[in-house]
Amino acid sequence: MNRFEGKKNKQIAGELGLSIRTVETQMSKALKILREALADYLPLLLLTTTVLL
Question: Per the confidence metrics, is the pTM higher than 0.85?
Answer without folding.
Answer: no
